[in-house]
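Justification of computing resources. Each target in the renewal requires a structure prediction run like the one illustrated here; the chain below, 374 residues long, is used simply to show the kind of job we budget for.
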Amino acid sequence: MNVLITGGTGTISSGIAKESVKQGHNTYAITRGNHNSRNVKGVRYIQADVWNKEQIKKIMKDLDIDIVVECLVYNCEQLKISLENFSDKCKQYIFISTAGIFNREQGRVSENTKKDVIEWRYTRNKIKCEEYLKKYFKNRKNKFTIIRPFVTYGDYRVPFPITSRENQWTIFERIKNSCPIVACDNVKFAIIHIEDFSYGVVCLFNNKLAFNEDFNIAESNKEVYWDDILNLSGKILNKKINIIHIPLDVFKKVFIDIYDELKWNKTEDLLADDKKIKTVVNDFTQSITIEEGLKSTIKSLENEYKTSNKILDMKWWYRCDLALIYSYLKNELNNEEKAIVKNYIKSISLRDKFKILWYYIESKLKNIKRRLKL
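Resulting structure tokens:
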């Protein structure tokens, strides 16, 4: 089969591309070419802007595609462009959504669980995309499939909610330097390595049981706590971990960029029900343990950091320090955490303290703008 994936170098898109090649499919990926060092061997990369309809029209004119895997759509406006670009050119359109849309009051989430997390813009938009997609394909001959990842990680993504978006190695550099690590509520979460996730996805290609269906992809009873991720990372790096649990209200004041994601998605248990995916893909399992996966992630990120002239995300670093200092000054920590943070504050240079102060001022301004928008 001929498979086209949008993206191709992100964690999910590259993982699906790699597994697609492994299962013998002719695999194409449309990418802007910003991360060519992460290209997957065997994939035919097409450099283009997926939102440029005229550009994509010319590309698709010369391609005969069976499966499209849409990894880049985050809202209905983008979805409409994607469908215009690809829906008439494929037999099966696979949309990557998120398991973050599920209500968690009843415990494990299945495909039939209520989808009502609308407070966070990301999940609200994904819900709207799913609804639009089902209506769009209602009277069409070609088919759709909705895929919902839980926390999916790999060589370039850390399975932890408070990490840098710019350089994920930064959190491990903090661990190596014995800096306290900022954490949220220690809840239990379904976490899956990209190789196991991608196997489940690719086995749904041209699978009649997957047509016009939705699938959550993670195995039941393989969930871990956020603190487990940090403690295993410390074990792998041979460093003691000092975990400081920061209350949500502190994130809202000094780390506003990630507050909504933490509040509505990452600070409440998210447990997987795997019955449906295992009914369709009988041998689906999570064969890669969290420790094995983390070792690979740490090795890959460290290698990229050392060989690709990447710099640490100091903005994120200082925001972590700000969260620690603010929590300490506002008496939001337990006695053990207070002692750790107190000693750490003493070690911060005057120059860095001024930078942290600047990010505090910036956070205050962001909160003012946020309130004005509301």
